[in-house]
Design a protein that fits this description.
Layout (H helix, E strand, L loop, with lengths): L1 H21 L4 E7 L2 E10 L2 E12 L2 E5 L8 H12 L3 E5 L5 H4 L2 H6 L3 E5 H9 L7 E3 L3 E5 L2 E6 L11 E4 L4 E5 L21 H11 L5 E4 L9 H17 L1
Parallel strand pairs: 4-5, 5-6, 6-7, 11-12
Antiparallel strand pairs: 1-2, 2-3, 3-4, 8-9, 9-10, 10-11
Length: 246
């Protein structure tokens, strides 16, 4: 009897351990290259747990974040993780379009004294759709110098949304594409409720021209390790344009 009980307890703990390993952590941080890191949080969309990737850069003058966590419970844990891992504070935060998977944390981070940025167009759409808004607004493509790194915000045209921008690190050849670019294995361009389906392909071509020979392409909701994502997204956008013209 005792042996049976012990075996049952061992079995329960084994199953619990398996389940524990299968569950995704609420916050995942993955080194990209050098001082660049991709972070991932999760949220429920149409009944499924969907990952949302963002990126941050560690500089001599502090940490810069590109897009906020989608999971609202992870705003502070991400700050805490950055502080513990790098012994630095977050100083700047950019959102690449108005949807909540990118803007949800803007107000929270602004209250922490962090400078938050979007474009004027993103701010207009955020206000219209009752989303969180940034403190500082960009009126055009802008080059930022933070510590030893420089990067450019670039508006290539309408695609996933009318306001989507990308971030280009020319020296490191890192393209932060957000939701505009889909995964190399994705079968569709995802949610198109706020998209410009006829301009999408031209917009992605503009990204290709601007961000030549990107070594890394970080995208929002799929595997970011396959750099065929931009080429594949462009092909899907061309097909989408044909369908809508027909």
């Amino acid at each position: 009897m005792m042996r049976t009980t012990i075996l049952a307890i061992v079995f329960i703990f084994s199953i619990t351990d398996i389940w524990g390993q299968a569950a995704e952590p609420k916050l995942k941080i993955s080194p990209l290259t050098g001082d660049f890191y991709v972070y991932t949080t999760y949220n429920t969309y149409e009944g499924y747990q969907v990952p949302a990737n963002g990126m941050y850069l560690v500089t001599a003058d502090g940490v810069v974040m590109f897009d906020t966590p989608w999971d609202t419970t992870q705003f502070q844990p991400l700050l805490d993780s950055i502080q513990v891992r790098h012994n630095k504070k977050l100083v700047l935060c950019f959102a690449t379009h108005w949807h909540s998977d990118k803007t949800a944390g803007l107000e929270y981070y602004r209250r922490q004294g962090i400078k938050t940025y979007t474009t004027v167009l993103t701010d207009e759409l955020s206000k219209k759709n009752n989303k969180k808004r940034a403190e500082f607004l960009m009126t055009s493509d802008t080059v930022f110098q933070v510590g030893q790194y420089s990067f450019e915000t670039y508006y290539p045209g309408q695609g996933h949304t009318t306001d989507n921008i990308v971030i280009w690190f020319k020296q490191q050849q890192i393209l932060y594409g957000g939701c505009l670019i889909k995964g190399a294995d994705d079968e569709t361009l995802g949610y198109l409720g706020d998209a410009n389906v006829t301009a999408y392909a031209s917009t992605l071509k503009n990204v290709q021209k601007k961000c030549r020979k990107a070594k890394f392409i970080i995208i929002a909701h799929s595997d970011w390790k396959n750099t065929n994502s931009l080429k594949h997204s462009l092909q899907m956008a061309k097909e989408l344009r044909k369908q809508n013209k027909g």
